[in-house]
Amino acid sequence: MAQEENILALTDEQRLNELGYKQELNRTWSSFSNFAISFSIISILAGCFTTFAQAWNNGGPVAISIGWPLISLFILVIGFCMSELASAYPTSGGIYWWSSKLGGAKAGFYTGWLNLIGLVSVTASVGYGVTGFLNNLIGLYSPSYATSFMGGDYIKQQFMLFLIVIAFATLVNVYSGPLLAMFNNISVWWHVFGAALIVGILVFGTDKHQSLNWMFTTQVNNSGFGDNAYWYFVLPLGFLLTQYTITGFDASAHLSEETHSAHLAAAKGIWKSIAYSAIGGYILLMSFLYVATNTDYINSFDPAVNPYGGGSIIALLYSALGGGASFKLIMLITTVGQIFCVTACLTSCSRMMFAFSRDGAVPGGNLWKKVNKHQVPANAVLASAVGGIVLTLPALWKSPTGAPTAFYAVVSVCVISLYLAFLIPIYLRLKAGDKFKVGEWNLGSKYKWMGTIAVAEIAVISVYFILPFSPAGIPGNEGFTWTAVNYAPIVTGGALIILWIWWNLSAKKWYTGPRTNL
Length: 518
Prior knowledge:
Shape: globular
Order of helices and strands: HHHHEHHHHHHHHEHHHHHHHHHHHH
Structural class: mainly alpha
Strand order of the largest sheet: 1-2
């Protein structure tokens, strides 16, 4: 057995050498561990809970019962396209490396920076998202906590917990690769059994239930926009739930250099994590709708009536279960699952930053590409964590609408940046046609229609998710306030402008794409 593993390791190392790199990271991850990190980052215990209100308030049950499976199919097609690329080029650079290979240094430069911005923002959004649940969970066991911690200021409480969560994820990440692999393996089973237990509690532990007809036909519009905009504007904003939850699956590619038989494991890790999460997430979300009987309470934005926020999943669960043991158990399951998720997000982000720095694209790259005695890029981990904290600073200012606008803005930055980074290599592979040298896992001739659908879907969602979430976020509108603005277009658009200027004035003179370190 040991001899067989050595042969596999040698084959992986030779394949990496052919791509221009020596083995620097510790290749100890199994195929299951590779799948596990993408599954953990997708995390149905994170996205399905933290962005549930976005779908409820912008579409209602229709955005979930019909929107989730529809958008999931589009994302699976995107995943298949990326799996083919991961099999052909199994490197930690992943997406930007694919773009560089297929479209040159400029394509790789833009892709890499969009990917890095997206990974920093997904780390930030998951880390900040879990703090709302952690805050409420602590309050359930310590009634005095809400008024004593940080002077009773909920915004400051949540941001302090965010810093603690990021610090914990950083410590786990800098220790060792094998510990991370074990952490993600445990995460998979926590998600599977945790989600199953939640569904069981909701389906069999409650007395009042909604009908299937209600779950598939009911529309809710708490956005502030008119009902005449429901189908073409409000409902698509609700699809952010699905598009955000099922993202980050590029982690399987970023961990290629730490995975045995990465040319197959990474490819399968991408599409399997999407497929299993789509199925599990749908069952979980439908169980939420099944017990959403007190809609007046759930829809209320009056803190005196609903202290959890209009459309909040916590409000829905509380209305169905009360504040007893079952409610507390579900809060514990999702909170721990989200902590698993943010740890995996930080891993993926740091590995991408390590690889991008190794190729000279990140300022101070010599610092970020260093690995510690555990063969972990510790400096890249720290930089990724700090970047996530900086991006989340606007959350310290409360929106008068009551909605966590800053959180949804970070979510939008994540979705737009990551999917634009996915779009570039998929488009370039489509353009390369039969000239593309496929790996062992490939799509055959199906790449033509799959690539076309993937590019079109990403283009559409990239437009929708830079639009305002509420009328108060539209400049010139009555009641406009900057704290209600979706700053995703400012961050993403600003980043693209900076990248364009940087490339034309400087980067094109020294960035030549992936560099060999053999």
